[in-house]
Amino acid sequence: MSSFFLGLDTSCYTTSMAVLDRGGNLVADRRQMLQVKKGQKGLRQSEALFQHIRNMPLLFEGAGAEGFCRETAAVAAGTRPRPEAGSYMPVFLAGESMARSLAAGLSALYIESSHQEGHIMAGLWSAALDWQDFWVFHVSGGTTEILQAAREDRGFTVKKAGGSQDLSAGQFIDRIGVKLGLPFPAGRHLEELARKASGSLPLPVAVRRREISFSGPETRAARYLEEGAAQEILARSVEECIARSLSLAARQALPGPGERVLFVGGVMANERIKGWLSDELGDMEVHYASPAMSGDNAVGLAEIARRAWLKTNG
Q1: In a structure prediction context, what are the per-residue pLDDT tens digits for the chain, which is 314 residues long?
Q2: Right CATH number for 4-127+294-313 from 3.30.420.40, 3.30.70.240, 3.55.50.30, 3.90.1280.10?
Q3: Under 8 Å between Cβ of 234 and 225
Q4: What are phi and psi of 132, to 5 degrees?
Q5: Phi, then psi, of 207 in degrees rounded to 5
Q6: In angstroms, rounded to a whole number, what is the distance separating the alpha carbons of residues 133 and 130?
Q7: pTM greater than 0.90
């Protein structure tokens, strides 16, 4: 009998479910972005939670015919933002409730994990890496953190070694993107706009002792816009500021050449930022989550479920 492994994640902006088979092959990957009204910079937790509850059945419609629901051996849910005490957001209750109910009904193994661990595992899975100890840059709309990560049976232990003091890199992109009239979240749209640029404008890079600040760059970028800067040039300037900030933070945080570094999170889908980092950190072993696995997804959680089940069942 086949065994399947289910992951569920209900983050601030995406409802996600994914299924892997026993060999780690992707069987299903379904996501539904939450709706944000034009001009708004985000959602309240109560509104996001409501949308997750509404979206979750849509992701499962038709799943019974695919067979994996009846043969699910383990279910993992992102129940909190990070794997640390006190980490909590109401939106994750939607995925947790569904995962626990499914596991109980199917007599499947249930595993509580975190949104961040899902991102890390999705990065390893998509890059075909089997690292045990490594560095992670989690760069997204809600987080910009430098982490020391170590693999465990049911996920990872992580220790923060630096990151943003104020805005995350994704917030920087979204705030400027909204000012440019782009849809929210703005990452993909800002990248498309930046491709049209013939140059860039200087934005400050504020990195000190592994800590990054994006509030100053945001203020300067907004001023450029008020002064009439071309939108595509400003978009490229934001990309370059983020890339330069991350590479400088890596130099300050990591011991030296040869370190293994994984970049994950929605911002890391940006090809220009990745290209800059690969050039600047060429003496390190740098990998990225694939573009499809950079944004919020449940594939990493499904892989956490698979590995945990195989640990005890072979």
Answers
A1: 569 999 999 999 999 999 999 999 999 999 999 999 887 888 999 999 999 999 999 998 866 556 677 789 999 999 999 999 999 999 999 999 999 999 999 999 999 999 999 999 999 999 999 999 999 999 999 999 999 999 999 999 999 999 998 999 999 999 999 999 999 999 999 999 999 999 999 999 999 999 999 999 999 999 999 999 999 999 999 999 999 999 999 999 999 899 999 999 999 999 999 999 999 999 999 999 999 999 999 999 999 999 999 999 97
A2: 3.30.420.40
A3: yes
A4: -105, -40
A5: -130, 125
A6: 10
A7: yes
Are the C-beta atoms of residues 177 and 190 closer than 8 Å to each other? yes
CA distance 187 to 171: 10
- Report the chain's C-alpha Rg in angstroms: 20
Structure tokens belonging to residue 167 = 């805005």
